[in-house]
Amino acid sequence: MPFDRRDFVKSLVASVAAPAVASTLPGAQQHRPATAHAPRRQKKPNVVLMICDDLGYGDPHCYGSNLPTPNLDEMAEHGLRFTHYNSAHPICSASRAALLTGRYGLRMNTRGAFGPESGTGTSLDETLVSNLFHKGGYKTKAIGKWHLGNSGPYLPTARGFDSFFGVPYSIDMDPLPLLRDETVLEANTDRTTLTPRYTDEAVKYIEESTGDPFFLYLAFSYPHDPPMGSPRFRDKTGFGNQGDCIAEIDWSVGEVLQALDRKGLTSDTLVIFTSDHGPWYQGSPGLLRGRKASSFEGGFRVPFLAKWPGTLEEGKVREEWVSSLYVLPTLAAVCGLPLPEKPLDGVNMESVLFGHGTMPERKPLLYFCAMGNGGRDVHCIRRDQWKLRVAQAIEGEIYINDRTTGARSSSWLHVPELYNVSLDMAESYDVAHLHPEIVHELMASLEEQMPSFPPDVVAEYAALKQRKGDWSTPTAASPRPADYRNPPSSYAPPWRQPH
User: Nearest Cα to 402, choosing from 446, 370, 442?
Assistant: First the structure.
């Protein structure tokens, strides 16, 4: 689809005039099959899974932004838009590992973001969804940012993908090599051309596909900081570099959808679009509190669109609470693939995808922080709309991940905080004292789940509970150090004072 500036401006004007979309409606782990099932088909569907780097919940137009994203809007109009889909982690490598395995990244040596000098990656004994597709007779292709390890045994071609074209880690890491399988094509690639090059590779792969079903994993490098669109999109949106590179991602989505149309594969292909976690310095978390790396909703809740004409309902909004941990078991069920041997943290959400049946029983979800203690500190636990905060970062600004503030540690809250994030998506009103039974239930689940993690994570949890913040810390504040001394003239209510 050639880029036409007049059409783009029309789209921009229309998007600015359109009303914002902001949903606060409520929605809906041990592995059990769901009662809903995909419609029986003559052949296995293709799957295209697209994931952005740092795209916020409020960035696409169909989620309330004024950015022109007509192709994402088209996916929402002719598919499903999820309003309560959460990543499993608020930073890059750990979130991608969870998406591709159905298990928390902390279970597999993936706690934060691997860098050029990491020398390791996601544990090699883990089964990725690409392994399942490959063993199930699918052709498999990975394009874009990988970030689960940058050496031979950790690269996509050793993890169930037939081929790979992309970069091993984030756009802000240097040097940034461009790889074809395990061969370095460019030692330090031109970052401004990555989105169109990824797109060309994806379109070519679709056009050259034969009768075999395929799994295409397209992982954009943007809008991660520093955001850079290619020359054809630069300064076109009026929303700066961040807006330009998001518009280019939207264009790429349109190119992929059109390639499926031309090939006659649209009705045979499940297309998913999402993000690894919330936005970093720029971009929009919508009305959510927090950003990338924080354990507030703005760090975890992201867009999730699904389109499969003739199979999924069109133009529907799904308000059930779901997680990126659910993607692997759901794709396995839809595509008739066997599950991994290791126990999953995610469950099959076919019932939500196809709009009938009930979700299987699942454990409350854990929110781990991104930075302090190697990302091993747990901050929150959530069941449906109820989110209990038990710990918080003790250093640095709590709304944003800014490495200039130094390494973060966390402290255990003197009084846990409970938020109804369906009614209070900005996590502004602590209601723990109104629902002591929910606080007790979630605390009990946290204590039950933590021993299942690796010993170092369990040890950090025990240490965290002893690293209590000062009792005078106001609700929703960064915990004051344990040796903090309140001025004699200050007042604290009795319920905040030590018991």
Answer: 370
